[in-house]
Amino acid sequence: MSPTTEHRKTRTAAGTELTETTVGVGGAAESTDMVLNIGPQHPSTHGVLRLRLVLDGERIQHAEPVIGYMHRGAEKLFEARDYRQIVMLANRHDWLSAFSNELGVVLAVERMLGMEVPTRAVWTRTLLAELNRVLNHLMFLGSYPLELGGITPVFYAFREREELQNVMEEISGGRMHYMFNRVGGLKEDLPAGWTTRARAAVASVRSRMDVYDRLVLGNEIFRGRTRGVGVLSEEAVHAYGVSGPIARASGVDFDLRRDEPYLAYGELADVLKVVTREEGDCLARFECLLEQTHNALDLADACLDRIAELPQGPINQRLPKVLKAPEGHTYAWTENPLGINGYYLVSKGEKTPYRLKLRSASYNNIQALTELLPGQLVADMVAILGSLFFVVGDIDK
């Protein structure tokens, strides 16, 4: 329908003649789509992510995640660093899961070398991986309500994170990028009395975790904003390669720690609980994350118990001055806090990898937005986006 123009003449009290012009577009306004950019800097994008939305009124018609703003070429840089140095590159893409990121790389290299890691290192790695899982989840447990207007939980989350950060910092010297994994084990043994302090920190955090049940899950506004919103089907989970708590919230009962055990998880089957939901909505994803945090604290306690029973022994393997992996290829994958991370390592027998391909959890998880957002209201976009629990560095690598 073409625009219409209407002219009307009026006269003021002083006798001056005025002409008013009205331009109308008729029914065309109702069928005009609007393109809206969310980001690349936006409070709910957890980094430099851009969403290109096509709207029909308040309803999202099409959604396209635009990524690459943080790309730093880590996979290419792997090819120019030796097997000791690549650990530094690996722990930075998901800055909330640095220890777990390091772990996947060293597991791939050790598998290529056919190397057996000391028992003490295996159990300590498992402990630190679970503490890192709690640190990751606490950030999202606090920041997700914040994105929906609830400011209080994030302060509690940082209080609990600080207790665990302290014990992680004590052993490694780092608060985010621990650099504690080494090919063949860990950098060094635990400091004297560290396990006692770690156990106290775990107990302290557990004693206050009920705040999320009461303050967040018990909040009717939070439940109203998340229940039935952003439902991700089990079929979509498989189609997009979604993993981790997001997949399990849609009824996909899969966890590498149970289904393909690595480290000491095979011996923790009686403690490990794979949390699932069937609803697949924002609320189910938050509930999975919260329950998984409780279970990670239980796993950390079980690891501390086992470490206390172990005799003194080495924490790593002695390595040659120049470390070379034999020619061949291997694939290692781990159940990272945000989902499955995979590491495909190709070696030509040199001291640097020929190729190290990283499959990061956030990259696949964020693709589901193209399925989740169409048909939703713009007001629900932030609730859906925040419930995918992603880190943009993990998308862009």
From TrEMBL:
Entry's EC annotation: 7.1.1.-
Keyword DNA damage among record annotations: no
Membrane topology type: Peripheral membrane protein
Pfam families to which the protein is assigned, alphabetical: Complex1_49kDa
Catalytic activity reported: a quinone + NADH + 5 H(+)(in) = a quinol + NAD(+) + 4 H(+)(out)
MF terms (GO), sorted A to Z: NAD binding; NADH dehydrogenase (quinone) (non-electrogenic) activity; quinone binding
Highest taxon in the source lineage: Bacteria
Keyword tags: Cell membrane, Membrane, NAD, Quinone, Translocase, Transport
Subcellular location: Cell membrane
Record text on subunit structure and interactions: NDH-1 is composed of 14 different subunits. Subunits NuoB, C, D, E, F, and G constitute the peripheral sector of the complex.
Function: NDH-1 shuttles electrons from NADH, via FMN and iron-sulfur (Fe-S) centers, to quinones in the respiratory chain. The immediate electron acceptor for the enzyme in this species is believed to be a menaquinone. Couples the redox reaction to proton translocation (for every two electrons transferred, four hydrogen ions are translocated across the cytoplasmic membrane), and thus conserves the redox energy in a proton gradient.
PANTHER family xrefs: NADH DEHYDROGENASE [UBIQUINONE] IRON-SULFUR PROTEIN 2, MITOCHONDRIAL, NADH-UBIQUINONE OXIDOREDUCTASE 49 KDA SUBUNIT
Protein name in UniProt: NADH-quinone oxidoreductase subunit D
